[in-house]
Amino acid sequence: MLFERIESAGLAHYSYLVGAGNEAMVIDPRRDGDVYVDQATSAGLRIAHILETHRNEDYVGGAVELAARTGAEVWHADAQWEYAYGQPVRDGQTWIVGRFTVRALHTPGHTPGHMSYVLHDASGAPWVAFTGDALFAGDVGRVDFLGPERLQEMAGLLYDSIFGRLLPLGDGVLVCPAHGAGSVCGSAIADRVWTSVGLERQHNPRLQAASRAEFIANVARELPQAPYFRRMEAWNLAGPPPLGSRPAPRPLSPAAFADQMAGAVVLDTRDELGFSAAHVPGALNIDADRLSSYAGWFVPYARPILLVNKGADPTTVVRTLARIGYDDVAGYLAGGMLAWHTAGRASQSVRTVTVQSLCRELDAHGEPWILDVRSPEETRHMPIPDAQQIHVTELPQHTGEVPRDRPVYIFCGSGVRATLAASVLQRAGVTNVIVVLGGLAGWSSTTCPLGL
């Protein structure tokens, strides 16, 4: 039997390839589907079925693209919405994979038509539950995508799905969700790589609620929604354009790159130290490892993207962007910043200090203006006294609150989000920014201790 979990880095998205006999199925595929075809072919299997647990909001689904390549049937959940592809799944519907059976299990809550899929072994016993965004390790799916007026309803449906349909499968059943730690589809997904119904029943904080009402009270809340979710929802109903519908980004000389900058977004995916040392004026910095998490907050779809990346090959960055619907990557700076400088082009930089230097500044000269761009949850658990708190994703709407007439020390957990924030402020004309490197681990100020 073939059983593979495929993780999309950055998105913390999990998809699954299950095969036996001479056929295979894919559950919740991503847009770039080579990995499924390659692994199935290597195992001598044909991908016959593609199952979706729900309409996704955080990434572009790959069912349409994969079906076009393999001839597989697509089965989508959320039959209440008008899909332009595939067939709707029915509760209790089954598929045969070798000696195994897969059964659809209606588990609404995250979305009204959400489906989980239960893999039964040759004896008919449930073995694996592919729970989509209903049940995660340490968390449950968010219930706010249909708006605040339906929060209570959706949370109640999710309770019924988990306690009435998933937990009764048995403690020994493996739980294979659609996301891991770091996903925006849950607020506190645990870093538990593999889990089971029994582990979640015992250790998942959401499942310790003493009643349905307590569960609803804990779960029915609104979480931040990135602007790019709207495009994901539309594409995942209509089917996204084929990946090959746009030409590959071209390597551009510094002169050609500069000529195309008007109207484009210059996206620099190098780490915080490289960007701070020197970057193309007006560039937005999102580290390549965090591109999936933050591009949707800051990069508009209506403008072409010009890349500045660390290595010579932009393929990985382009693929990451495509997974969240950014197809218009017009080109990249050939030769990187070295070529830019040797061509005599001007650049910007961001001053950096270590967290220890900031501590010494606090101890010697009082209180400089500190911008804390961590999340509300982070700042609540470990605040920096007297810091101005603006979450990095909300910063574009609040740049007017940042002073221009004094140094602004930008603080996060390590310096990565602080550098992103510095690039946003520089683009808004705030140039007196200083990124604090080191994060909480290096904090040692005596006059401004962390509030614990």
Report on this model:
- This protein has about 450 residues and is α/β, with parallel strands linked by helices.
- The chain folds into three domains: about 1-230, Ribonuclease Z/Hydroxyacylglutathione hydrolase-like (Metallo-beta-lactamase, Chain A); about 245-340, 3-Layer(aba) Sandwich (Oxidized Rhodanese, domain 1); about 350-440, Rhodanese-like domain (Oxidized Rhodanese, domain 1), CATH 3.40.250.10.
- It has 14 helices and 24 strands.
- The protein has helices spanning about 35-40, 65-70, 150-165, 195-205, 210-220, 230-240, 255-260, 270-275, 290-300, 315-325, 335-340, 355-365, 375-380, 415-425, and strands at about 1-10, 15-20, 25, 45-50, 75, 85-90, 95, 100-105, 115-120, 125-130, 135, 140, 175, 195, 250, 265-270, 285, 305-310, 330-335, 350-355, 370, 390, 410, 435.
- Strands 1-2-3-4-5-6 form a six-stranded mixed sheet, with helices on one face. The chain has a six-stranded mixed sheet with strand order 7-8-9-10-13-14. The protein has a five-stranded parallel sheet with strand order 15-19-18-16-17.
- Helix 13 links the parallel strand 21 and strand 22.
- Helix 3 (about 150-165) packs across helix 5 (about 210-220).
- The protein is globular.
- The N and C termini lie far apart (about 50 Å).
